[in-house]
Design goal:
129 residues; mainly alpha; Arc Repressor Mutant, subunit A; 69% helix
């Protein structure tokens, strides 16, 4: 049974109000910023500002620069990301996953998927009773 099928079955039975959806997503996004940042940068390189906009577009959660940039700087220091100034704009850095970053991303996403599938397997049982 896949994460999507279990989660989809649970979500199909629950009608969340917009405020509740935003709260649930916020509670998920904020503690998992690093994984989401890696995942998005795994799709394409971008600057920090565009990353913040993309997280907002996908999850309707607005992260501050103070929440995102320290993570980016730390990942650069750890060799997970590479940063280069954008052509024609020496104020904008573009962040790209390194090979080490791609491996870290795969491992972190794998752990997250495992944890969510494990939790949903018990939650599904609780909802069906």
């Amino acid at each position: 049974m896949s994460l999507a099928s279990v989660g989809g079955a649970l979500i199909g039975e629950i009608n969340l109000e917009q405020d509740d959806r935003e709260e649930v997503l916020s509670r998920f996004v904020k503690p998992n910023k690093d994984i989401l940042i890696l995942s998005i940068l795994g799709e394409r390189p971008m600057c920090g500002y565009d990353l913040i906009k993309e997280i907002y577009r996908r999850y309707n959660v607005l992260l501050s620069q103070g929440a995102v940039y320290p993570i980016l700087y730390s990942m650069v220091d750890d060799g997970i990301l590479r940063s280069e100034y954008s052509r024609g704009n020496m104020r904008t850095k573009i962040y790209t996953l390194t090979p080490k970053g791609q491996e870290v991303m795969r491992r972190k996403i794998g752990k997250m998927v495992y944890a969510l599938e494990y939790m949903l397997s018990f939650l599904k049982g609780s909802c069906s009773e």
